[in-house]
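Incident log, support desk, overnight shift.

02:14 A customer reports that sequence design results differ from what the structure should imply. Their input is reproduced verbatim below. On-call engineer (initials T.W.) acknowledged and began investigating.
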């Protein structure tokens, strides 16, 4: 018999899901050779027929973004350990605070990713933009987190 109101059960499920997601995220293996950020950049260069200058500019954009995002990712990684500890301690107030902090960091990371994507898109020719739009159709704009991870695996 369950004596907890549904809204309380849903509220309590959020930290558990965050903790589970943290464990899954941190346990992910490194991408296979050629499938990491460099592999993605090579795929973009080939599919979009990027010039050498465009490739250099794109590489600089993604490296700058990776460098800027690294402290955020480090903070999120540390935060996941705190979330796990708070879940185990059933510290509801701490979980609410940590979830808010995680949301803020995630938003900042996503902002950096989207800004990089906008800079990348702007360096494409109209024909390349059309090809990029076709490649990302159905996924919305986005190269996804893999492109932004840089060399920080």
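02:41 Re-run completed on a clean worker. Output:
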């Amino acid at each position: 018999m369950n004596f907890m109101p549904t809204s309380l059960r849903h509220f309590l499920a959020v930290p558990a899901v965050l903790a589970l997601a943290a464990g899954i995220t941190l346990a992910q293996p490194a991408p296979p050779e050629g499938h990491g950020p460099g592999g993605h950049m090579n795929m973009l260069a080939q599919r979009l027929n990027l010039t050498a200058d465009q490739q250099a500019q794109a590489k600089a954009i993604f490296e700058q973004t990776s460098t800027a995002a690294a402290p955020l990712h480090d903070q999120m990684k540390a935060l996941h350990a705190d979330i796990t500890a708070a879940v185990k301690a059933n510290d509801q107030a701490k979980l609410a605070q940590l979830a808010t902090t995680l949301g803020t960091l995630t938003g900042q990371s996503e902002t950096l990713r989207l800004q990089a994507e906008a800079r990348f898109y702007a360096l494409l020719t109209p024909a390349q933009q059309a090809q990029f739009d076709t490649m990302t159709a159905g996924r919305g704009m986005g190269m996804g987190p893999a492109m932004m991870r840089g060399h920080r695996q």
